[in-house]
Every structure is written in C-alpha cells, then in structure tokens.
Amino acid sequence: MLTWIVAHSDTLCNFLTPLLIGFSPAQLRHALNCVEALLVCTSKHKTLSALTRLLRLPHADEFALADFFRASPWASAPIQQAVTLFLLRTVCTIQQKTGWRLLFLRIDDALCPKDVATHALEAVTFHFDHCASRRQKGNCTNSSRYVTLGLQLGPVQFVLAWRMYLPRKLVKQLNRTRTAETQLTFHKLTTLVEQMLDEIAPHLPKGGHVYVLFDAWYDNQHLEKYIRAHGWDWISATRSNRNVSNRPLSHWWSHLDHQRITRVVVRSATRRHTYSTRHLVGRLRHYPDPVVAIISKRNKQDRSPAYFLCSDTSLSVQTILKYYGYRWQAEVDNWFLKERFGLADYRVQSLEAILRWHTLVFAAYAFVQYQRVMPLLKDPQARLQPVGDVLRDHQREHVRQTVRCIADLVRQGHSDDELLDLLVPN
Q: CA 414, CA 417: separation in Å to the nearest integer?
C-alpha cells in the first residue's frame, strides 16, 4: 500500500532526539527525516532520492539531505556512544527485572559491496571475500568493511557497537591528502574489537556470566587473553592447524579413537542436524589456561571437520555448540542492516560522510530492536515479536497517518488536482 511520511513518529522522536547530541534544529530535522525514511522505505536501494520521495514534509529536500552528510558539521562518534550507552542501560534494566545471568557478546565483520569500477568513495577498496558469488577480482570484492559487537541476553538482541575497518594501504593513501589534524590511524580488526569491548565493559550488567563468541578470523592468543583479563569466557571456531597440547587439531580425531563419539543435536529455526564429535581438554601455545577443543563431523565420511575452542572447561560439548550457535544472529543483523536498511547504499564520497550514513543506519536498526524488547520493561514474562513484525507495525502507523492526511485534505474541500499537487509534487 502507498505509504508517505506526513509526520514524524512520536516513538521515534522520543528515542532518537535525546541521542542526537549537539544537533541544531535543522540537523535534527534532517536526521529524523533520514531515519524515518529508512524505516519506511521498501525500495531495493535506499538512495537519498528514494528516501526523499517518501517525505511529505515542508523541510524535506534531497540536496539539503546530501549536504547534511557531506558538509554539515556533526561528528558520528558521539552519536554511536550515546546509542551504545542507551542500549546497555536497557539491558541492565531488563536483567534486573528478569534475573537472566547468561550474557553473550558476538563479534563479526561484513562487507558493503560496491561495483568493481567504484573508486571515488574513500572507504571503498578491495577486501578478501569468502563468499564466491561476490568475488570481483580474484578472491576480493570492492567494498567497505565494518566489524560489529552484538549482545544477547535471553531473547534480547542488540547490535551494541560498530567500527569501520580501513586497511593499512588505504589509510596511507587517504593521509596523503589530509591535514595533520585529520590524519587517520590504522587499527587491526582485533584492535577495533578490543576498543568496543573496552567501551561496553564498565556498563554491562553485574553478576552475570559473559561469553564472547567469534569465528576463526579472530582466533588469536592476544584477543583471547584480553577477554580472559576481563573475567569473561570465550567460544570460537578455529582452524585445523591450531595446536592443542602440541598437536594440530586435524590429527586429534584419530588419536582419540579410544574415546566414544558423542552425538550432538543442533537445532535451528528451520531444521535440526546431528553431528559426530570428539573432544579433549588441552593447552594452547602461549595461552596459560586449559581449553576445551571439539572436533565435529557432519557424518562419518566428512573429510573437513569443524573445530571449536572454549575457555570454560566446565561446559559440555552440547552446551558449547549450542552457545556458539547464537552467533547466527550476527548474520541476521547483517542482512537487516545491508538489505533492509541500506547500509551499503551510500553514495557520498568522503570517509566522514560515509561514517555519518552508517551511524544513522545503525541508529534506525537500534530503534527497531529497542521497540521489540520494550514489552519486557513492563512484563518480564512477555513474549517478543520478530524484528520484521516490529518494523511492519511502524510502517502501518505511517499508512494510517497517510490515510488521515488525505481524508483531512478532502474534508477541507481540495479538488483532485490540488490533492495531486500537494501529495504527488512534480
């Protein structure tokens, strides 16, 4: 059904306005216009022109919105921090009401793919891509790359923080045209993860058990020691050549022939699968504490087992694989961010403008996730809707506003041509 934005949603204004620190009235209007349009727009690509076409507000203008990202003097970092702190306060409130103690932090990164000929956007360069359908140049895709930190407490799921990753070569290239005050600093992916963990650590709920989940890309002793220094545990996928008790994991299946195979059933939203596993408790090189290593096969003939490590030796194999499965929500988050909210649809050139676009996209997703968990703030036993249903309810609110606006104009005596001029301008 036809949906226009004839007024800003009160729920969005109450959520977003306190987080837009230091914004002028004009900047606040542009930010609300952009986020509201991102929530309502169903076009495949969320370009500024597609977003502006939905706005039936007197101050909506495509070129002014572009300048809001390119030239307006506002920084994205304070907005990111404000959103993160707000979500963490919400998590603490829910934890106090429900008493849930298990808290999971998910680390993941993803690409925002662009056309292979794209070269003027400062955050875009070639990154390694393990997804074959997107490879444009060998094993690489022309894209920008970001890393996210997600949180799960029971059914509560938030994307808490994110960082843009810039390769060392790209940082050097961009610094050639920057002044001394605007020089960029290269950070490894693990350093960006540590920055985000440092940011949220003082604000996490007290008294819970925290597990940090990540894939084999982040499996290294520095990050694992860093996580343990916070008093948290970690669960990760790993590679076959990772040494456990001075032997590669790929050799351990045959050396554990004396051990009975453990059948583990892993359930997802659509199916269930039984895996054959063997495990051992051993030590990693340059890591002080014992860990649980799991070798998992899909079937007896599987020649490419999956390997997992866990720092909590008290957990069973079934529990470790169940907890690691919570990482799947990171893929759901990436789908919503890129396909539904247009994280990869930016057309602005400067790095600062791209960061601003990302900030508002993440803020829009944070709003939907917050609306989803609001029932828990009133009733700890409440059942939560899927994110898609929450988003659809918000869109229905704007459908009702559109119908009311047209009805009001008809009651005021406007002719058909006047209605078309007002609602469908050239």
A: 8
Backbone dihedral angles phi then psi of residue 285, each to the nearest 5 degrees:
-70, 130
Alpha carbons 276 and 295: distance in angstroms, whole number: 8
Q: 111: part of which helix (H) or strand (E)? A: strand 102-113
Are 34 and 160 in the same domain? no
State the residue range of the domain holding 37: 10-74+385-423
- The last residue of one of the domains, among 309, 340, 371, is 340
Same domain, 332 and 408: no
- The answer to whether 223 and 116 have CB atoms below 8 angstroms apart is no
Instruction: Tell me the whole-structure pTM to 2 decimals.
Output: 0.93
- Write out pLDDT tens, residues 136-145: 777 889 999 9
> Which band of pLDDT confidence, cut at 50, 70 and 90, is reported for residue 244?
very high
Q: Has residue 2 got a pLDDT over 80?
A: no
User: Is the distance from CB of 276 to CB of 261 less than 8 angstroms?
Assistant: yes
CA proximity to 147, closest of 198, 188, 189, 186: 189
* Same-domain pairing of 320 and 394: no
Q: Which residues are CB-contacts of 292 (< 8 A; sequence separation ≥ 6)?
A: 279, 280, 281, 309, 310, 312, 313, 315, 317, 320
Instruction: Identify the domain boundary among 287, 322, 340.
Output: 340
pLDDT in tens, 53-69: 898 887 888 999 999 99
- Using DSSP, state whether 121 is helix, strand or coil: coil
Are residues 57 and 86 located together in one domain of the fold?
no
Q: Report how far residue 267's alpha carbon sits from residue 249's, in angstroms, rounded to the nearest whole number.
A: 25
pLDDT at 333 over 90: yes
Q: Which two tokens stand for residue 353?
A: 């403008």
Cα–Cα dist 332/267, whole Å: 16
Long-range contacts, 256-263 (Cβ 8 Å, 24+): 256/280, 256/295, 262/317, 262/318
**Beta partners for 262?**
277
Tell me the H-state helices in 201-283: 221-229, 249-255
- Categorise residue 312: left if φ over 0, alpha if ψ from -120 to 50, beta otherwise: beta
CB-neighbour burial class of residue 385 (10 A; exposed 0-12, middle 13-18, buried 19+): middle
Q: Is the pLDDT of residue 172 over 60?
A: yes
pLDDT-derived band of residue 426, with 50, 70 and 90 as boundaries?
Answer: low
In a domain, 369, yes or no: no
Say yes or no: 46 and 147 in one domain: no
